[in-house]
Amino acid sequence: MRKSSCTHGWSSANRRLLIRLRYILYSQSELNPMTHILHLDASPRGDRSISRTLSKEFINQWKTIHPNDTITYRDIGHYPVPFVSEDWIAAAFTPSDQHTPELAAAIQISDELIDEFLAADRYVFSIPMYNFSIPANFKAYLDQIVRAGRTFSVDEAGYKGLVHNKKMTIIIAQGGAYPEGSPTHAYDLQTPYLKLIFGFIGITDIEFVYADNLNLGDEARNLAIANAQSALRAAIAH
User: Fold this and answer.
1) Coil, helix or strand for 56?
2) How many CB atoms lie within 10 A of CB 84?
3) pTM of the complete model
4) Is 39 part of a structural domain of the chain?
5) Which CATH number is 115's domain given?
6) Which of 5-9, 76-80, 146-150, 187-191 has the lowest mean pLDDT?
7) Per the domain annotation, does 8 fall within a domain?
8) Shortest CA distance to 42 belongs to which of 25, 60, 26, 54?
9) How many other CB atoms sit within 10 Å of the CB of residue 172?
10) Containing domain of residue 90, as a range?
11) C-alpha closest to that of 73 among 64, 83, 63
């Protein structure tokens, strides 16, 4: 018995056209897959935070262009993650099948944060500069996700990052400016550390967007914000 088909009775030209359309749609889905973004804010400020404002603008513009993409949001500025404890260290270096209830509880938040981190294809992190480096709450977050056996490995050859094919945009709010070649460049301990720690786990495609000179008066502040907004629009386009 002949199987029924919605294309039964179509001309060969129409069937070829349908096949071609299906191929084009498949190709487009392969070239433009949906993206999963992890959006993280580290500032303890609310509406007065420049880094939060810029990251929110980025995400809103991204969703306008890519409405089907997934956005996961984590606010460690208002809801900080715990610092590493003695039980955490013991759990991290003990096989999971040997965890006591106390060790399992100590490492649970780390497992959740790492799972969330690895599930994303792209990261949008807003991080203010504190005393020329990162805030303590963001360091606590890094200590939870940079973990042997999960985001990096160690063997006879040394360290190896386990997080690959990811893209990261880091928005930094600074009171001053610390560009390369300037007398103040050495004060920027934030940018090189972030490059190092994320590169350590395998993420090297990192774009930094700076809102700097925020403490140098309204004119410098407004110019810095406008420049950062322009850079973020360019980042969305790429």
Assistant:
1) helix
2) 16
3) 0.84
4) yes
5) 3.40.50.360
6) 5-9
7) no
8) 54
9) 24
10) 35-147+168-197+204-237
11) 63
